[in-house]
Amino acid sequence: MPAHQPEFIERCAGFTDLFEQLGLPSQPEQIADFISTHRPLSGDVLLADAPFWSSGQSQFIREQKQLDEPPWTLLIDQLSEALRNDTQPVPPNGSYMKLYYAPGTCALACWIALEWAGAEYEAVKADYASEEYRRINPLAAVPALDIGKERAMTQAPAILQYIADQYPQADIGSNPGLENAFELNETLAFLASDFHPAFWPFFMPYRYTTDESEAAKTAVKEAAYARVDRAMQHLDKLIANGKGHVYQGKRSIADAYAYVMARWTTYLPKTWQAYPHVAAFMQRMEQDEAVQRVLAAQKD
Ligand SMILES: N[C@@H](CCC(=O)N[C@@H](CS)C(=O)NCC(=O)O)C(=O)O
């Protein structure tokens, strides 16, 4: 058995209680040995049906999955996943990250930031309405970033800031100084709480009226145009002041965040092409290799 990487052992320690419950050796190294020996487990086999369990172990796993209560159900899901994955058991830099996304959504901003940061991560397409995903983010929205802790991180701006802070060498966070940090914060707040919500009535008009008629939904959608336009005009000014970037003339997490949301205007009558500074910014972003990789990979 080859020596395990320390980060893998550390992650395996999280399974101690579960392995004890299963009556298996439960030292982190022993868990690491177990996982390495038994993977890869085929994607079409339920964990409870894996051939290496005793009938008692299978029964425990099946019952806990049915009860669907923490902590066992979460640990069982994590173990199931660890057993499927044999290509990248532990990212080389020791940081384990899993980004939950849905195509075309604001989660792509985090994905672009992870690429810019040179992070080791896995992007996982989420069915955000599913019960399973609600256990990751109770608000049933993407993004979520699992860094191997008790709960996943949520909220796009907070995740973006975390990525910038975690990878300072990528220089995608704020410039030094309190006021510069404030300005990035202010920009992210604009993107998260003015720009993003401006689109909600357009994409989900049924949430903004109790009138179920098509006419009512159309009216709600059309009301969104003015709010989006207002935010796009503000973004255009930010980019003009930022010399082609959203924040202080440098590539930052704010660029990634603004880019993925400004793309949504292609569904509206007034698209990003109508805002000169935004248009130049969008065209530059589309030349970015990381952006191209993410856009290609996020498709079904
Ligand atoms: N405040 C959250 C909002 C996230 C959000 O609304 N994400 C959208 C995709 S861009 C989503 O998952 N929507 C699912 C839904 O509203 O049902 C954040 O900033 O992360």
What is the spatial order of strands in the main beta sheet?
A: 2-1-3-4
- CATH class descriptor of the largest domain: Mainly Alpha
Q: What's the SSE pattern?
A: HHHHHEHEHEEHHHHHH
Distance, first to last CA: 37 Å
Q: How many strands, which pairing sense, and closed or not: the largest β-sheet?
A: 4 strands, mixed
- Gyration radius over CA: 22 Å
Number of helices: 13
Look at the helices and sheets and give the structural class.
Answer: mainly alpha
Give the tally of structural domains: 3
* Arithmetic mean of pLDDT: 92
Number of strands: 4
In words, what does this structure look like?
The chain has 300 residues and is mainly alpha-helical. The protein folds into 3 domains: 6-83, Uncharacterised protein PF10982, DUF2789 (Arc Repressor Mutant, subunit A, Orthogonal Bundle); 98-170, Glutaredoxin, CATH 3.40.30.10; 178-288, Glutathione S-transferase Yfyf (Class Pi), Chain A, domain 2 (Up-down Bundle), CATH 1.20.1050.10. It contains 13 helices and 4 strands. The protein has helices at residues 6-13, 16-21, 28-38, 55-67, 72-84, 107-117, 131-134, 156-166, 178-203, 214-241, 253-262, 276-287, 289-297; strands at residues 98-101, 122-125, 144-146, 153-154. Strands 2-1-3-4 form a 4-stranded mixed β-sheet, with helices on one face. Strand 3 and strand 4 form a beta hairpin. Helix 1 (6-13) crosses helix 3 (28-38) and helix 10 packs across helix 12. The chain starts with 5 loop residues before the first helix and ends with a helix. The model is unreliable at 87-94 (pLDDT under 50). Glutathione (GSH) is lined by residues 105-106, 128, 140-143, 155-156, 192. Glutathione is lined by residues 105-106, 128, 140-143, 155-156, 192.
